[in-house]
Amino acid sequence: MSEIFLYLAALLIAGSVVLGVARLIRGTTLVDRVAAIDMLTIVSISMIALYAHVAGRFIYVDVALVYAVLSFLAVLAMARYLERGL
Amino acid sequence: MLEILAILLCLGILASGVLAVRLNNLMAAMVSAGLSSLFASVCYVLLAAPDVAMAEASIGSGLSMLIFLYAIRKTSNAKE
Question: What whole-number distance in Å separates Cα of residue B27 and Cα of residue B58?
Fold first, then answer.
């Protein structure tokens, strides 16, 4: 039963990566690209967490935590730049 | 399942690298380079190297993006 959910999660993650990269390629404005990279960061965090569960290694969850904090910082810096602050 | 995700990540690295070279807007090119670093970090995790992935995430996606932002902000006065 849980295998079905794992495959479903992998399928959703793959679809999200495809859609995010398509938005990044097509993105007409800069805000679209920043939003796309924010979404792809969160998808990557979920991918690392899924792999930590599949591989059975808890040390990978720490990587996901570090990544969440740093991606928040990067997106915050880009938002400040778009507001002409920094 | 994971092989498909790894292949997708490698295609994402390729697409974002080509985009970072070909885009005219400096900020958009920097965002594409950051995406390439992000996908490379996830690839390091899939290749069972979590410490390298952590260093890549902190340096490639966090620190270098901040430095690029600062540099673009400092030098974009004379541009157009």
Answer: 20
Tell me, what's the ipTM? 0.81
Report yes or no: B70 and B26 within 8 Å, Cβ to Cβ: no
Identify all chain A residues contacting B75, using CB atoms and an 8 Å cutoff: none
Q: Which residues of B touch A25 (CB under 8 A)?
A: 15, 19
Question: What does pTM read for this prediction?
Answer: 0.85
Q: Whole-angstrom Cα distance, residue B44 to residue B47?
A: 5
A51–B8 C-beta distance less than 8 A = no
Q: Which pLDDT tens digit goes with each residue over B45-70? A: 888 888 898 888 888 877 888 888 88
Spell out the domain ranges in chain A. 2-82
| B36 has a chain A CB within 8 A of its CB | no
User: How many C-beta atoms lie closer than 10 Å to residue B79's C-beta?
Assistant: 7
Domain residue ranges of chain B, discontinuous segments joined by +: 2-75
Q: Which two tokens stand for residue A21?
A: 């990269």
